[in-house]
Amino acid sequence: MRVSTQQLFGRGIESINDVNAQLQKTQLQMSANKKVLTPADDPVASTRILQLNQELALNDQYQRNINTVENNLKFEDGILGSINDVIQRVRELTINAGNGALNGDDLKFISAEIKERLGQLAGMMNSQDASGEFMFGGFQGKEEPFQQNISGSYTYKGDEGRRFIQIEASVNIAATENGKSVFMDLPAAKNTFYTEVGAANQASPPAIITTGQVIDQEAYDAFYPEDMVIKFKNSLTGLQYDIIESSSGKVLSPDVVYVSGAPITAEGVQFEIVGEPLAGDSFFVQSTAKQGTLTTVEKLIYGLDHFNPTSEGRDVFDALLEDTLTNLDSAETSILETRSHIGARLNTVDSTREQHLDIEVLTKEVLSDLQDLDYAEAISNLSMQQFILESAYSTFSKVTSLSLFDRL
């Protein structure tokens, strides 16, 4: 068989390149600390490595979600604890107001502090989390949930939603509570009402309606659950209003001469309209069996500011204090229940975090077995490949130097 010089050189260079490629691959494996550098190295292992890396990335996201939920729940629990402290202070002031030796001026001093506490409560109920979302606004996290209406009473502008965050493939945890369920949907001690200004009123500046109070519970219970409309009109003698039963249109009190700020009484309730309404303007007295925490405090302030020192007035005031304490009990119970739910969720978060940490350790162990380089083996291979390469160079040099002309 004839072996040409070109073939001899080609086979020698090919052999050297193969050994050199193996050497470079080993060096790359050592620098990257990985034995699988491309899918071609081990297709099955490469597929499994990709899956495991995706599982680790998902696990990392779940752990970030867990941290977010935990921070939100702890912050929310702290806010609820502070709100409860303020409610307890309002309770103390309510009990102090029941001292029969106090006169109207003394009660106004108590009212002044409770007004400050009311603002404090509203501020805490409008707390924002680290991302600027309102904690108790439901899904309406960008809008302040508790806002004052035209009359200065607090109303809830959020919704009944709760924001959930996924912390595991099949586990979603509520990271927030809505203010409606925690602070608004509370059972009132007795049948009660709230007041509203008609949305279509034209007066500018708008007239307002006060929070009011029940002054004759039996009379109001007999009227409940009906609502009332106070409808203004012009007459020859000036501005008047009718008090109308909402459902039937029956006029309960016709042609009443309007005096701004004068007490208006009907069906066992009392309130005031202040300002200069126009003919056609309406105000509403809406019956309800529920009473929010802020409304409870507002009605207490109204009762303190409108204390009547007569025996009948004292009876009305004592009934208000009794109802206020009952309603504050409901508020504290709601907060306690909410905090217990938060505690249960925090326990779930803790156990899920531990589970994810265990999964992370096991996944990394499997991933390490698949892709991490055995340095002892790699160094041995590198030494062998260097030896083979040097031998190939030496052999190539000697073989290519052989010639028949050296024998002539």
UniProtKB/TrEMBL annotation:
<keyword id="KW-0964">Secreted</keyword>
<keyword id="KW-0969">Cilium</keyword>
<dbReference type="InterPro" id="IPR046358">
    <property type="entry name" value="Flagellin_C"/>
</dbReference>
<feature type="domain" description="Flagellin C-terminal">
    <location>
        <begin position="326"/>
        <end position="402"/>
    </location>
</feature>
<feature type="domain" description="Flagellin N-terminal">
    <location>
        <begin position="13"/>
        <end position="138"/>
    </location>
</feature>
<dbReference type="Pfam" id="PF00700">
    <property type="entry name" value="Flagellin_C"/>
</dbReference>
<keyword id="KW-0282">Flagellum</keyword>
<comment type="similarity">
    <text>Belongs to the bacterial flagellin family.</text>
</comment>
<dbReference type="InterPro" id="IPR001029">
    <property type="entry name" value="Flagellin_N"/>
</dbReference>
<dbReference type="InterPro" id="IPR001492">
    <property type="entry name" value="Flagellin"/>
</dbReference>
<keyword id="KW-0975">Bacterial flagellum</keyword>
<keyword id="KW-0966">Cell projection</keyword>
<dbReference type="InterPro" id="IPR013384">
    <property type="entry name" value="Flagell_FlgL"/>
</dbReference>
<protein>
    <submittedName>
        <fullName>Flagellar hook-associated protein FlgL</fullName>
    </submittedName>
</protein>
<dbReference type="Pfam" id="PF00669">
    <property type="entry name" value="Flagellin_N"/>
</dbReference>
